[in-house]
Design brief:
heterodimer, A: 140 residues, alpha/beta, D-Maltodextrin-Binding Protein, domain 2, six-stranded mixed sheet, 4 helices, globular, disordered N terminus, B: 417 residues, alpha+beta, Porin, 16-stranded antiparallel barrel, 6 helices, 17 strands, 23% helix
């Protein structure tokens, strides 16, 4: 998944920083955009329901993925490890489990397509017509 | 004739090649043959691939069936997630040694089991805590003191070593919306440290000394909570509240209150916008009005208020709480200030200064504490700390009770599962 940047020497290949991600929801979801704080709350499971009544079902990437690292840094301002600490705290004090994880764009798109309240993110350009892309206000 | 024969022999010799030249040809032919064989092998491989692809080419109907199967699999996962009861827990083993009268001890401190379940707007959470300690002043100190004053002999009633099983949390929460939620049952008090007092969430092994003398640790009753927020760049300005009505306190256990008069309290927390520079900037105020049974079953008024803050900037974190209470005309107070530095993702060092000043239990003490917290994984913590306790001179402490400063060491290993 990680794009490779091949240096002119040709012998060294480094993972390139991801160019971005897009947030996707089910096509039936009427929401067109979210403030970044609402996106944070959705992925922290602090918002349980969409305004139209569906349960919010966030789906995350495997912790080792580049897109997860970028999402964690840009959306929460924290590392994946710091978020893991956060979920241990939430688990003990609130009984909340972290969002379930998947390992590929295809699997995530398929899940979002099938679950009405799902919200997820995929590398920019890998989204397709089976899901709906929404804008995030305040995301830099 | 003879001349013609020799001319023919000469011509044959001229046209024929030497033996070494023939060997070169053979080698060339062999190489060419090998190359051709490799090409043929590649062509055969390609042919196999094409044949397999041809076999895999699905009809539109087959693709629809596959999509349906996958969708059912997703639904199955979803139903499993919705129907699942989460089981977690933690284990805490610790060691404590200091120059006070308390003995050096290994403590089988906590084994907690957590059960939780979410069902749309409803959630349930409970914690069953098994404590088995040789002698634990946090649990038995008050009881022994009370028993002594009642003329009983603590040696005869000491349950040290027997441990105890307790339901520390058991609540049900209904989340109506962001602004209004209701929680009923046995809950921890809403102050920061009480909410996060679990051994794998705190940096230190020991809790702040003032903690059990100000706000009650728990409440059995009803809490209404919620909040409102306004986005401000990447962060938000948020106002969260908690209001509760609960039983009064009986020696740290509010479950046995059968009287009409109940205690009540509230908390307001402001989450300030951080502008992307801070990770967190929270300020909160707490209030508690209730009654407490100190050494007898007779209840007396107990009023407590407190202030607290948590700030995170990059790898630096500051936690501070202050509380002041009044019972039977005596004022008690306590605080802690704890800066911490995250040296690496899994390694944090911290310092804490804390004080308790309580005529109620005739104790006035300031502590300085410095420690390390190592988390190889988010679920595992190994921590160690060194502290110095300095008793304070107060009018409510007689010379007989006065103690000298002493040093101590505590360490713990914690596993969350």
């Amino acid at each position: 998944m990680a794009a490779l940047l091949v240096l002119p020497l040709g012998s060294i290949a480094l993972p390139a920083p991801l160019s971005g991600f897009v947030v996707v929801v089910n096509k039936e979801n009427p929401v067109a955009s979210l403030p970044i704080t609402d996106l944070q709350r959705a992925f922290r499971k602090q918002t349980r329901m969409w305004p139209h009544g569906e349960a919010v079902v966030p789906v995350d990437w495997d912790a080792s993925s580049v897109v997860r690292q970028e999402f964690s840094r840009r959306v929460f301002g924290r590392s994946v490890r710091e978020m893991a600490d956060f979920w241990v705290q939430q688990n003990i004090t609130q009984g909340l489990q972290p969002p379930s994880t998947l390992k590929s764009t295809r699997a995530i798109l398929r899940f979002v397509m099938s679950v009405a309240g799902a919200i997820a993110y995929v590398p920019a350009g890998e989204e397709d017509e089976t899901v709906k892309t929404i804008g995030i206000k305040g995301l830099r | 004739m003879k001349r013609s024969f020799w001319l023919a022999v000469a011509a044959m010799l001229a046209l024929s090649q030497p033996a070494w030249a023939q060997q070169d040809d053979v080698a060339r032919l062999r190489a060419e043959l090998q190359r051709q064989q490799e090409v043929i092998a590649k062509l055969l491989e390609r042919l196999d691939e094409l044949e397999k692809k041809q076999a895999l080419t699905a009809t539109n109907e087959e693709l629809k069936q596959e999509a349906q199967t996958q969708q059912e699999a997703v639904e199955s996962v979803r139903e499993t997630l919705l129907g699942r009861v989460n089981l977690n827990g933690y284990y805490n083993f610790r060691f404590a040694a200091d120059q006070s009268p308390e003995p050096v001890s290994f403590q089988q401190h906590h084994l907690g089991l957590l059960l939780s379940k979410q069902l749309r707007k409803f959630s349930f959470h409970m914690e069953l805590e098994l404590q088995n300690v040789p002698h634990h002043p946090e649990i038995h100190g008050d009881e022994e003191e009370g028993e002594e004053e009642n003329g009983e002999h603590p040696e005869e009633t000491d349950v040290s070593g027997e441990g105890q099983v307790a339901v520390e949390n058991a609540w049900m929460d209904y989340a109506h919306n962001r602004f209004l939620n209701v929680r009923v049952g046995k809950q921890l008090s809403p102050q920061y440290w009480w909410q996060n007092h679990y051994p794998n969430l705190t940096l230190s092994t020991d809790q702040p000394i003032y903690l059990r003398e100000l706000f009650p640790a728990e409440l059995v009753g009803v809490t209404v909570h919620g909040g409102a927020a306004r986005p401000s760049g990447r962060s938000e300005l948020a106002l969260n509240y908690r209001v509760y009505l609960s039983n009064n306190q009986f020696e740290g256990n509010s479950q046995s209150d059968l009287r009409d008069g109940k205690s009540w309290g509230g908390r307001v927390q402001v989450r300030l916008p951080t502008g992307g520079r801070l990770k967190r900037f929270d300020v909160a105020g707490d209030l508690y009005r209730g009654q407490i049974a100190l050494t007898t079953r007779e209840l007396v008024d107990d009023h407590v208020y407190g202030l607290e803050s948590q700030i995170e900037v990059d790898r630096f974190e500051l936690q501070a709480e202050y509380a002041r209470g009044r019972t039977l005309g005596d004022t008690r107070y306590g605080y802690y200030v704890q800066p911490a530095l995250r040296l690496r993702d899994n390694f944090t060092t911290f310092y804490r200064v804390e004080q308790l000043d309580s005529p109620r239990i005739r104790r006035a003490e300031r502590r300085h504490l410095a420690g390390l917290n190592f988390r190889p994984y988010p679920q595992i913590a190994v921590k160690a700390e060194y502290y110095r306790a300095v008793p304070q001179e107060r009018s409510f402490i007689s010379e007989d009770e006065a103690r000298s400063p002493f040093n101590g060491f505590a360490a713990a290993a914690v596993f969350f599962f």
